[in-house]
Design brief:
The chain contains 7 helices and 7 strands. It is of the alpha+beta class.
Length: 211
């Protein structure tokens, strides 16, 4: 029983079951089968592992790039990261300007925690959090500054709940009169309008980066 190609291997496997192949051929087939299983299990392990636990880092937030992208210093390198779950209605200029101001106000210049949900070729979708767990992404959604977009991340419960809160209370982009002022981009955002009682921004202030 010789094995010169895949068909020969299949034929020899059948013959091995029937007991008509030589012991040496049977052993070769056993190694082939065991090796194939081991490779399959190894690939599956790394795929499951890569899809599992999110990574978290302490980063310095350096600057705002746009309404959902920030530059952070991470492990000695500056990288641009995207705020996971954050999206905006089309042509709502006020929402994008408000978002930039809020990010700058509560995050830029601070040392914060960054959780990575997805990393595609170095493009990271993240949540920015204070040390007590308050999340910038949730803040933007709960105040109606942005709307939830999964971007292939699946269901992120806290962000979906934060959006639902703003929608139910008709805040920001969910205001029924939004069309009357969505192109007004020169207004300043006060802490009272978007930070509520200030618990999030107070915590962020405690973690300012001192150069």
């Amino acid at each position: 029983c010789k094995m010169e190609n895949i068909d020969d291997q299949r034929w020899c496997l059948i013959q091995a079951v029937r007991g008509t192949c030589s012991p040496g051929t049977v052993r070769t087939m056993e190694f082939f089968i065991i090796g194939s299983i081991a490779i399959g299990v190894g690939v599956l392990y790394f795929v499951v592992r890569s899809m599992g636990t999110n990574r978290e880092y302490v980063v310095d937030v350096i600057d705002v790039i746009d309404e959902r992208t920030v530059k952070v210093s991470m492990e000695g390198s500056s990288v641009n990261v995207i705020l996971a779950g954050i999206g905006f209605p089309p042509n709502d200029e006020k929402a994008t300007v408000d978002a930039i101001e809020v990010i700058r106000e509560v995050a830029v210049g601070k040392r914060l925690h960054m959780e990575i949900f997805k990393d595609v070729g170095g493009l990271m979708y993240v949540a920015i959090k204070s040390s007590n767990g308050d999340c910038l992404n949730d803040l933007m959604l709960s105040r109606g500054i942005a709307r939830y977009e999964s971007n292939g991340l699946g269901y992120l419960g806290s962000m979906v709940s934060s959006e639902a809160k703003a929608r139910n209370e008709e805040l920001g982009i969910w205001d029924k009169n939004r069309d009357l002022f969505k192109h007004m981009t020169g207004e300043h955002i006060s802490d009272e309008d978007y930070i509520g009682e200030g618990s999030v921004i107070d915590e962020f202030d405690d973690e300012e980066v001192h150069s």
